[in-house]
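Lab notebook page, bench 4
Experiment: in silico fold of construct C2
Operator: M.H.
Input chain length: 155 residues
Purpose: comparison with the prior construct
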Amino acid sequence: LFNIHWWVILIMNAIFLILFLTLIDRQRILLITLSFMIAYVINTIFDDIGEYFQLWSHPHLLVQFLSPLATVEFIVVPSIMALMYQMFSRWKFFFIADFIVASIISFIVQPIFVYIGLYKLHNWTYFYSLVVLFVIGIFVKIIMDFIKRKQLNYL
């Protein structure tokens, strides 16, 4: 606790939380916040499954007894997904953005996390991460578009 890894996790998540709160569309704050929460839940489920099957591990946590709230990316990935949903309403552009974001996280950010010891791959590859992150983005968009359609039906 309170070592350099802990500070990196804290500062990185704080930066992304501040970015999310700064960039969120105030007119659609509930919808975008809901997309953040859905991305958080889906990401946490995938993360827990991966850790359970020992595909990867997080050697350093922000809070040891709250692993879903403690990993290196617990705010980073959901905030990026929510802002991506906010900025790209058309599927074509969302697919492109989702692929670019998943690629950056998988092939640039995760190797850096592995290098500095925040993330360990056991039976996993960066390509698998690309696929999973891309699918998480698609799930978030599908769920949010469904909710948005239902909301419009009641107006």
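Observations: The longest helix spans residues 126-153. The radius of gyration is 16 Å.
Next step: discuss at group meeting.
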